[in-house]
Amino acid sequence: MIDTAHSARTLAADLLQAAGLRRDRADITAECIVQADLWGIASHGLLRLPFYLERMLAGGYPPNAELVPVRDTGPVIALDGGGGLGHWQLWHAAEIAAQRCAEVGIAAVSVGNSGHCGALGIYTRPALDAGYLCLAFSNGPAVMPPWGGGTPLLSTSPIAAGVPSKPTPAIIDLATSAVARGKIAAHAQNGEPLPDGWALNAEGAPTTDPHEALRGMLAPLGGAKGFALALLVEAFAGGAVGPHLSVDVPDMFDPTVAAKPQQIGHLIITIDPACLDSTGGSAHDRIDRLARLVGEHGGRVPGERRVPIRDLPPETPIELAPATIEQLTEWTRRLDITVAPTAGHPATHPDRRSPVDVVGEFLDSELT
User: Fold this and answer.
1) Between the N and C ends of the chain, which has fewer C-beta atoms within 10 Å?
2) Among residues 96, 163, 98, which one has the least CA distance to residue 130?
3) pLDDT tens digits, residue range 42-74?
4) Is the pLDDT of residue 233 over 70?
5) DSSP structure class, residue 182
6) What share of the chain is helix, strand, coil (3-state, %, to 5)?
7) Average pLDDT, whole number, for the chain?
8) Of 117, 111, 108, 122, whose CA–CA distance to 140 is shortest?
9) Which spans in 132-281 are helix H?
10) Cα 184 from Cα 140, distance rounded (Å)
């Protein structure tokens, strides 16, 4: 039964491991995937796991891909992901960025030649846990035309930011298209029409048919301004990191290219606000005041209710669409996975290491 955070996370990790991913990496990836569902971002949660598994078995996300250092200048580190699934790779990069930021006050860590990483805001957590500011960029398959154009050029061009405000941090996570493409896929899976203004068909005409939208394009957020912001994200993730621009990234929803690595670019930038402080010690106080003022003025800090999955009780309920449950059940049969009838307590795996241990080992062996 897939009805709790623990049962969902365990099943996802078991499926990923059965598809060839090393257990510690499967655990990290599963946490990131289920975290999206628990944060209400079902479009980037377990709905996508069947697509990840299909690509892993086909070779599009090689399960044995390694994260290989390419360059290390101190505050800037470039990594090559070997075409592997992006969740565990970007999580490691985010932890490395937080560690390096503690040493020099700022760090930028790129992961090139990677795969889809899910909800980008998740990867601000290592920086936020350390009290740092964070920015994250990623690209993907081209689904958005330039402003005034009629053919896909940019991806949904997601951008995320973390602000270490207290008592709860701000997590800003948005697509620069009118909507994330995963929401289109969710509507297609559930047989629901799209709201007006979300998407265009392959000919560039507005459509509310999610299947036409998946074969077509997404409208930019806020017109020309949204396109400009998307171009900025693409310049960082596709241009600077690479190796692919969005026009060259295979579509994970297209089964005919499941064997082709996406070669997506991700970038994490982590900054210690105390190092930017012009007054000698009040940066965090101002950040906290800013968050309080949002509430005092009748608003809500973005992402303030997004509790890390590791801080939630294992029995925290999770709601999944019937179609998602059906697909995951089919994958348990395909990969010969047994689903526990009840949630219980988290299983222990003798070969599992914590992400901090993995990153520490990685830095000691590869970057020093």
Assistant:
1) C
2) 98
3) 989 999 999 999 999 999 999 999 999 999 999
4) yes
5) H
6) 45, 15, 40
7) 89
8) 117
9) 181-190, 210-215, 224-234, 273-276
10) 15
Residue type, 131: G
- Its pTM stands at 0.86
302 secondary structure, DSSP code: T
pLDDT value for 340: 58
End-to-end CA, the chain: 45
**Residue 237 DSSP label:** I
Place of tokens 């074969």: 215
Query: Omega of the bond prior to 243 within 30 degrees of 0, cis?
Result: yes
What distance in Å separates the CA atoms of residue 227 and residue 156, rounded to the nearest whole number?
10
106: left (phi over 0), alpha (psi -120 to 50) or beta: beta
For tokens 């991806």, the residue is 155
The answer to whether 309 touches 33, Cβ cutoff 8 Å, is no
Give 137-164 as a DSSP string: EE--S--BPPTT--S--B----EEEEE-
Q: Enumerate residues 6+ apart whose C-beta is below 8 A from 235.
A: none
- Model confidence over 286-300: pLDDT tens digits? 999 999 999 999 999
CB 153 within 8 A of CB 142: yes
The side-by-side arrangement of strands in the sheet containing 106-114 is 68-72, 76-80, 106-114, 264-271, 133-138, 159-163, 170-174
DSSP characters for 90-146?
HHHHHHHHHHHHHHHSEEEEEEEEE---S-GGGGGHHHHHTT-EEEEEE--S--BPP
d(CA 273, CA 105): 8
The number of beta carbons lying within 10 Å of the beta carbon of residue 206 is 14
User: Tell me, what amino acid is at 70?
Assistant: V
The candidate with the shortest Cα–Cα distance to 35, out of 118, 157, 136, is: 118
Angle between helices 23-38 and 86-104 (to 10 degrees): 90
Confidence of residue 218 (pLDDT cuts 50, 70, 90): confident
User: Kind of pairing, strands 206-207 and 199-200?
Assistant: antiparallel
CA separation, residue 106 to residues 98, 164, 228, 269, 327 (Å): 9, 15, 26, 7, 42
Q: In this structure, are residues 120 and 159 in contact, taking their beta carbons and an 8 Å threshold?
A: yes
